[in-house]
Records
---
Amino acid sequence: MGKRAAVIDAPTTDTTAVSLTDVTKVYGRGSEAVHALRGVSVDIHPGSFTAVMGPSGSGKSTFLHCAAGLDRPSGGRVALRGTDIAGLSETKLTELRRTRVGFVFQAFNLVGSLTAEQNVTLPLRLAGQRPDKRWVREVLTRVGLGERARHRPGQLSGGQQQRVAIARALVTRPDVLFADEPTGALDTKTGREVLALLREVVDAYQHTVVMVTHDPVAASYADRVLFLADGRLVDRLEAPTADAVADRMIHMER
Amino acid sequence: MLRLAIGTLRTRVGGFVGAFLAVALAAVLVTAAGVMLESALRTHGKVERLSGTDLAVAGSAHLARTPAMGKPPADSEMDPDALRQTARVPEEFVPRIAALPGVRAVVPDRTVPVGLPGGGGAEAHGWDSAQLTPYALTAGTAPQSDGQAVVDARTAAALGIAPGARLDLATPTGTHTVTVTGIAEGRGPAAVFLTPAQARSLSATPDRADFLGVQLNPGADRGAVRTAVDKLLKAAGPQFGDPTRPQPRLQVVSGGGLARLEAPAVTEAQEATVPLVSVFGGTAAFAAVFVVAGTFGFSIRQRLREIGLLRAVGATPGQVRRMIASEALLVALAASAVGVPLGYLFAEVLHTLFDQANALPDGFVVRDGWIPGVVGAGTAVLTTQLAALVAAGRAAKVRPTEVFGTTGKRRILVPLLRYTLGLVAVAGGVTLLIVSMHLGGDDGASTSVAIVFTFMLAVALLGLPLARLGVALIGRPLALFGRAPALIARANGAADPGRVSAVATPIALTIAFTCTILFFGSTEAHETVAQSRARTTAGTLVVDGRDGAGLPAGTADRVAALPGVAAVSGTVETTVLDGSAGDAEEQQARGVDPGVGKVLDLGVTEGDVARLTGPGTVALGERRADALGKHAGDRVRFWLGDGTPYEAQVVAVYANAYGFGDYLLPRDVALAHSRVAAYDKVYVAPAPGVDRAALTAALAHEGRVLDRAAYLDEVSAKADEQAWANVLILGAIGLFTALGVVNTTVMAIGARAREFAVLRLSGTTRRQLFAMLRGELAVVVGLGLGLGTLIAYLTLGAFANGIAGSFSPVMPLGTYLVVAGSAVVTTYAAALLAARAVLRRDPVAALGARE
C-alpha cells in the first residue's frame, strides 16, 4: 500500500511484451476534465498472466485500452515489444495492433454474418494474409471448438462465443492478449471454463495475457494482480488467491 | 473486404433494401430522362415542302459570336443568345447568288399564315416557291396576276373547290378574295400559292424574304456552291441594322436545317422539350443523391458498433472505407441491373404522358440508345460512392474503443468542417434569396430551385444543432403534458438528435420541394391574374383569334371604325434579347398600337405610351427599367426577336408589366422581326353607355369575344396549364422523398428493438410505447414540416418579390394541408407499422438478441 507506482517494476526493454511509462490519460478539457490515468508505469513480461483490478472508475478499462494501443495516452509512453506507439498513424497503429495484440471483449463481439472460423480468420484477412488452415484448426481446437467451426455466432452459446473470441485473439500469434472482463457476461461455470482456457494458453503455449476484471476469483487465475485506484497503480499481489484479492479490494474501497 | 461486404449485405438485407430502392429509382428516372433527352435531341422535323431544295440561305439561330467570345457552349440549348425567330434575308442576294456557277434557281420564300373558310389555316407562298417542293399543277394554270391563286390538291378537295372558284383568305392585312386558277400536287402542309408580288405585299417585310431556297444544276458540286455562297455572304457583312453590334449571320443550311426553316414550330417544340426533360432528370438525380446519402449515412450510424469491432480486431480506417465503398458498389450494381431496364420502359410511359399533354414535337420517336443506360448506371454508382465517401469518412473515424458502447468514452467532437460547410450553405442560400428577390420570370424560377437545393444542403449539414433546437422548441410543450411517455419521448429526442435529424431531413426535403414547385405556379398565376385585372377595366372587351389563330393586322382598324368603340389596340406577342452578347436574356415583349394606353391601364409612371410610334421607340416595364437603370427619355440597346440590333428611346415606363411583357414595341417593328404575322389579341374599350350586346355581336365577326371575367378566367386557366410539367417533376421528387422518409423511419425504429424490450420489461405497456413513439414523431415531423415550410416560404417569397415587388408568396392553405398531411401520414404510418413489427417479438428474446 502506498508504494509509488513507478517502483512496482523496474522498466526493462528487451524482455517486456508491453511497457507503460508514466502514462496519463485525460478526457475532456478544463473543469470537466476527467483524469482517468495519472501516471502509470508497468512492464508486462512475456508468458505472464496479469490481472488488473480496481473499483469502478479506477481507470482499469482506460489502462487496458492504452496498453493495447486501442486508445492513445495523453502523456507518457506506451511501447509494444519496444515499439513506441506515439508516432504511429492510425493505420500504422492498427497494423501494429493487428500483429502484436489480441483482444477479448466482455460482450463477445463477433461479426454476426460470419461463421466461427471466418470470425477467427478475420484479423488475418484484414492483414491481407492467407489464413493457414492447419493453424486456424489448431487454434480452434485449443479453445475446444474444433467441431463448431462452421457455426454462426447465433448458433453458439455464450461460452462458445467467448471461445471463438479468444481464438480470434490468438490467431495472429500476438505478443499480448488483452481481455476486458471476459467472464462478465457468462454464468459462473462457463466463466470458470473460459478462465481455465486463458490460464492454459499461458501455461501450455507461453502466450501473454492481461485481463481486467472485478471478480477476485477471476483474478486468482493470474500470476499476479495489479490494483488500480483513482488512475494510479496502488498495489500488486503475486500468486494471488481469491481471498487475498478480495481482502485487498475491501481495503481499497474503504 | 469484398467478401466481408457481401457477407454484411447478405445478413443485413433489411438495412440495404431502402438504399437499394432509392438507387434503383434514381437509375430508373435518370435513364428515362436520358432516353427522352436523346430522343428530343435527335428529333428533326421532316423535310417535306423543301424536298426539292438543295440549299437555303437563312439567318443564323444565334447571335453571331465575335472571336473574343470564344466557342459557343457545347450544349447549344444553354446558349443565352439563341433566337426564337429567324432573321429575314434581304432580297438583293437573289440575283447575286443566282449568278454563281452551278446555281439553277434562287427563290425568295415567304410564308404568310392565312385563314381559310371553315376555320382551317394554310400557308400562303409566292408561286415561285412551288418549285422548292416541287408542286406540279394537276388542273388549271398558275396565278398570273394579283387576286389569283393555286390551291394544293388536298385542301381543294377538302373545300370542294375547282379552278374558277372564289376563295376568301383571311390575311394579316385583312380578308382578300382570290380566284382559284389551278390545283397543284406536292408535299407539306396546306398551301395557297399567290403571285410572288402579292405574297410579298402580304408579308411584314416586302424587301426581305423568310429565306432563300437554292436549287443547283444537275451535276453541280454542292460543296463548291456552298463555299461560294458562304464567301459571298461573308463578304457582304452584317445585314441586320447597326453593323457594329453582334447580330445573326446569314448562313447556308441544308438537310436538317431545311426542316427548321420549313416548320420552325416543330424545332421550337423540340427545343422546349430539352430543358424540360433536363430539369426532370437533374432534379431526380439531386433527390437521389440526397436520399441515398441520407440512407447510407444513417445505416452507417446504426452500425458504428460493428465498425468499432472491426477496428478493434485490426481493420485500418482505410479498410473500413473500402468495405463501405464495396457495399455501396454492390448495391449500385444490383440497383442498376434492375433500374436501367425499367428506365427504358419508363421512358415509354413518359412518352405517353408528355404526348397526351401535347408537349412533344411532331416526329418525336423514343430512341433506345445505349448512352442513357450508361448514364443511369453511372449515376447510380457515382451517387452511392459519393454517399459512401461521406458516410465512410465518419465511420473510419470510429475509435476501436467505441465497441464498448456507452461504457467507452465516446468522443464528442464538434464536426467543424461539417458545420462550416453548413453555414456556407446557409450564406449561399441567403445570397441567392437576395438575388432572387430582384429577378423575375424564368431567372427567378431557376434561381428558386437552386435556393431549395442550397438550403436543403444546409439542413442536412446542420442536422444535429437543428434537431437539438427542434427538440427544445417542440419537445418542451409536449413534455408539459407531463405523462411518462411524453417525457421519455422528449428525452429520447434530446439523447439522439442524430436520429431526429435523419428522419426530419427527408420530411423537410419533401415539404420544401413540393411546396416550392406547387406554389410557384400559384404565385405566378396569382400575379398574372392580378396584373391582368389591373390592366383591364370592368368594361374591357377582348377579341381573340379563333382556334388560337392570330388576328389579322387590319382587325384593329376595322374595330376602331365600329360604332361605340372608344379605343382599341391589338398586341403582337414576341420576344427581345437584352443584356450583352454571349450573356443575353430573353424577355417577353409585345408589339402594340399607339392607342394601347387608352385601352389598357398599364400603370404608366413616366412618359407616355402614345409616343410609341415609329422605329426607335420602346416602353419599358418598371422592374426591367429599374434593373437596367433607365428612365423615360434614355436610350436603350437590345436585340429584337430575330436578333436584329435595336436602339431606341424609352418613351414610357409602366408598372403593370407582368404577364404582358417588359418591352413594348411599335406593332410594325414587332411584326417585321417575328415569325408571327398577326395580333394575338385585340383589346377594346367601349364608349360609355354603348349597347354592349350589339358591340359584342359586331366584334364577333373578327374573332372570339371575351368580357373581362371570361378573359381573366382564361388567363388563370392558361397559367395553371403551364404547371402540368411540374407535376411530373413533383411526382419524381415525391417518390424519392417518401422513400427517404420511410427508409429512415423504418431503420430508426428497427434499430431500437432492444430499447423497446427494456421499456416493456420495465413495465411500459404497448399503448404507452406507442404514445411515446407518437410523441417522438411529433417532434420529428414538426421539425421537418417547419424547416421545409420555412424554406419554401422564403424561396417563394423571394420569387414573388421578383415578379410582383412584394414578399407575398401565394400558398393556398387547402393544398398545403394536403401536402403536409401526406407527409405526416406517411411518416406516422411507416413508424407505427415498423414499431408493430418490432413489438411482435418477445421482449425477453429481443433483449437477449445480439446484433
---
Amino acid sequence: MTFVGLVVLWISLTDILYRYVRPSMQKWLVLSGVALAVIGLWSLIDDVRTARAAVPDGDDPDDGHRHDGHGHDEHGPDEHAGHGHRRSRVGWLLLAPLLVAIVVDPAALGAFAVDRASTTRVPTTGDFDLSEHIAAHSFGGQAVDLNILQLYKAAKAPSDLELLSSTPISTEGFLVTDPGGEVLLAQLVVGCCAGDALPVTLALEDIDAAGLEDNTWLRVTGEVDAAATTAREDDPDLVPMPVLRVDSYERIDQPELPYLYPA
Amino acid sequence: MSITEAEAKAKATRTGLTAAGWAVVAAVLLARPSLGYVFAEPFVQNWSTIFLSLTLQALPFLVLGVMISAGLAAFVPASWFAKMLPSNAALAVPAAGAAGMLLPGCECSSVPVAGRLVSRGVAPAAGLTFLLAAPAINPIVLVSTYVAFPGAPQMMVARLVASFAVAVVVGWLWARFASPDLIEQRLRQAVEDHSHSHTFRETAMSDFLQAGGFLVLGAALVATMQTAVPSSVLDTLGGDGVVAILSMAVLAVVLSICSEADAFVAAGLTQFSMTSRLVFLVVGPMVDLKLVALQVAAFGPRFARVFAPLTFITAVVVGTIVGTVLL
C-alpha cells in the first residue's frame, strides 16, 4: 500500500499524469497518494513490531495480549487470520497497474485510438463565440489560434463557417492517415480520463504528408474550405468534419497537455 | 483471545508477501529491455493507457470512500445508524436514497461506504438504495449533465427523477423479496475494543486492498473491451426504437465511464434518441463492469449475480418510462 501511494505520487507530480486524467484531478491524486503511503507505512511499522513482539514468545495468547495492549477480539483466530489472507490475495492485484505504469509506461492515446473510435461522436456541446474569439486573438494579421474542438463548434453555424473560410487560422494536433488514405489532424477530447476520450479531426487539404508518420504533432496554418466542409456531411443533424486548406505547417513536440477538455 | 499467534503469523505472512511483491517488481524491471518491442505495440500501449487512466481516475474516489468507511467503523457506534434511519423499510429506503445526494463523487466512493453501512447494521435494502443513488444524483453529476446538454435542461431533471426512482424501486424490491443470505459480509468487521486509530487504519487498509484489487480487475476488463471492440461499431446502430435503448444500456455497462463524464459522451451520441441516451445515463452509474467488480468486493459474487441484473432491468424500464414522459 505504501508502494501504491508512492507510485501514485510519482505519476501525479509529473506530466505523466496528463496522459491519463484531466489536470484538475491532480490535487486529489496527490492527496490520495499521501493518504495511502502514510496509512501503509504506519501499518507496516505496526506489523513489524507485532511480529517481533509475538514471534519469540508467541505461544501464550495472554502474553500477546499484554504486548500489544489490544483488547478482546470476538472473532476466532482462524477467522481473523482468514481476513488477513483474503485481503492480501486480492490486494496484490494492485501491483498490476503499478507494473504497467513503470514497465510499459504507455504514451498518451494517439492515432490508434482515433482510428478505432466512432467518427460521429463529436462532443460539440457548449457555446463558442467565434467572432469574439477572433477579435480577442488576432494580432496584426497573424493567423488566429483555434483548437480543433473550437473549430467544430464554429463549424456548426453556417455564418461562422463563412467567417472561418476568410480568416487564416492556426491549430495543432497529431497526424492520422485514415484507412481511405486521407490525411487528418486529430486531437482527443477527454472528459474525466483517457477512458472516455473522443476524437475530433480536421481533414487536411493541400498537404504533402510524405515522410510524416502518424502521431507526429504538427502546428498547421491555413483557411477552412467551407464548400468542401459542407459537402462532407449530408445529414444536417451531424456536424461535418472541417476541411482545412493548409498554407504551411511545422513539426512540434507533443504539448504538455496532450488532450482537449470540454467545458 | 487477542492478537495471538494466528494473527501474528498472518501479519508475518503479509510482510513476507510484501517482500515477494518487491521481488516480482524487480524481475519485471530486469526483463523490460528484452520485451520493449511488445510494449511498443499500439494495442498494448492503448490498453495500458486506458487501464491506467481508469484506475487513476477511480483512485481518489475509492480512497475517499474507504476513508469514510473506515471513519464510520472507527468513530460511529453501530447503534447510531439504527437511530438515524426509520426502522420501517418502506420509509428507510427513500431516506437512504436522498442521503445519496450528500456524497459528492462517483460510483467508486459509494460502494465501500454502502458496504460499511450494511456491516454496521443498516438494513441492506437502505444501504443498496444509497449505493445506487449516490453516484447518480449528487450535485456534481447533475451540474455536468446540465452543462453537457445545454439546449435540454430537462435531461438533468429526467436523470435525477429516473435515477432516484430506480434506486428506491430496487431497494423496495430487495426489502420485499431478497433473502438475507445473498449478502456475504466481505468487509473486515470492525473490532470495537481496539483503539480508534487502530480500527481506522486497519479498516482503511483492508477495505482499500479489497476494493482496489477488484477495481483493477474491472479496469482491466473495460480496457480490454475498449481496445478490442472499436467503438465505430456504434455508427451502424442508432435510431429511436427499442434497439437503440437496449444498445445504449449495454454500452453503458461496457464503457464504464464515471458518472461525472458520461453526460459528455452521451451528448455526443447524437444518432441516438434522447430516451435511449437517458437510459445510458441511468444505467451507467448503477451497473457497469467496474462497479460490479467493486460490488463483488463488498458483498460477494452471489450478491452481484442477482443485484446487477435486477438493477439493470429496473433502470432500463424506469429510464424508458421517464424518458417517454419528460423528454
